[in-house]
Amino acid sequence: MAEGKCRWGILGAATIARKNWDAIRRAGNAELIAVASRSADRARQFIDECQAAAPQPKCPEAVAGYDALLARADIDAVYVPLPTGIRAEWVVKAAQAGKHVVCEKPCGVDAGQVRQMIDACDANGVQFMDGVMFMHSRRLEALRQVFDDGVSIGEIKRITSQFSFCAPEEFKTGNIRTHAALEPLGCLGDLGWYTIRFALWTMQFRPPREVSGRLLSTLQRPDSPDAVPMEFSGELFFDG
């Protein structure tokens, strides 16, 4: 890394990437070098909009194509906010290019795909980190202390969590989350990732004994090959 700073690239111009644009700007030990999209114009538009709202000390470069960004020698790590359906391919390519990876959630379509990504990072000596922000906050460390002190909270019998939002009509017909090839897990991956993750964290990542789930409704934008979960209810059962 250059002068103790981690030099970053962003693969994709997704809306969620705006948060990590700002996080890199505020980190103090990081520098955003470039943003890649399928076209240089799309990358440049993303940079212009982000730079107007939260300017980087040095304006990042717009790069056409993800391969071109991964080939750069002046980038140490990449943030990957690409759709889940194509994410694994580019995480593996980033690892093979020697870049550390922060991967947006859900990291993969299934556990096998996530294992493929982690194995690629291990094989190439780079770090893999998922982009679930609350997992890396001091607030969660403080909660862990309260949970484990044996005094503040009694025996855990049930964990209940919910995550929802009110989607406008244009979300239903045009958002990537309603396209089965881009986000095949729908709400289960987009929102359920958080609720499941928090339950597992509470249980010290002990695997559940049994899992049940119920698909309540689906959504399918006009160009999607299949429907995706729009509403889902699930339960994890732990020993004890």
Task: Provide structural commentary.
It is a single chain. This protein has 240 residues and is α/β, with parallel strands linked by helices. It contains 9 helices and 8 strands. Strands 3-2-1-4-5-6 form a 6-stranded parallel β-sheet, sandwiched between helices. Strand 7 and strand 8 (228-237) form a beta hairpin. Helix 4 runs parallel beside helix 5. The longest helix is centred in the N-terminal third of the chain and has 14 residues, at 40-53. The radius of gyration is 19 Å and the shape is globular. The model has no long low-confidence stretch (mean pLDDT 94).
Low-confidence stretches: none
What's the end-to-end separation, in Å? 47 Å
Number of strands: 8
Strand order of the largest sheet: 3-2-1-4-5-6
Q: Give me the number of helical elements.
A: 9
Shape: globular
Percent strand equals 15-25%
Helix content bin: 25-40%
Mean pLDDT: 94
The run of helices and strands is EHEHEHEHEHEHHHHEE
Sheet with the most strands, sense and barrel status: 6 strands, parallel
